[in-house]
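Q: Sequence in, structure out?
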Amino acid sequence: MDFGSILDKWEKKSSQNVVKDKDKEIILSGDKEGKKERRSRLLKKKPDAVIDLHGLTQEEAWISLDVFFGNSLKTGFEKIQVIHGKGDPPNNEAVLRLLTKRFIENCRFAGESAYCSAKEGGTGATWVILKNHLSR
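A: Exactly. Output:
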C-alpha cells in the first residue's frame, strides 16, 4: 500500500467525528456538533471536574476559581461544578455562593450555569457549562 492510499483511508475514517462521553459515544455529522445537541448532552452530563471552596476566604476563593476555570478550559473540560456551600443558617448569608455567582457572570468563557440537583448539593453547589472553544 502506498502513502497516498494510506492518506485516502485515513481521510475517510476522519470524516466522521466521534465524541466519547463517559457512558456513550455520540457520532456527529461533519466536524461540528450543533448548539442544541451540545447543550442537551451537557445538561445530562456529570461534571468533568469539581472544586470545593469550603473554608476559603473570599480572596482565596476568587483566585481558586480563576485557576480552576482556566485549567478546566485548557484541559478541554466542558462542564464543571463549584461547591460553595449554602451559607450560615442563622444569618442566611451565603458569601461564597454570591462570590461564585459574581465570578461566573464576569468569566468570559463561563456559559450556562445553575444550582445542582438536591442530591448533588442543591443551592450549595453550582454547575457551569464552559463555552465551546469554537464560539470564543
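Residues 58-75 form the longest helix (18 residues).
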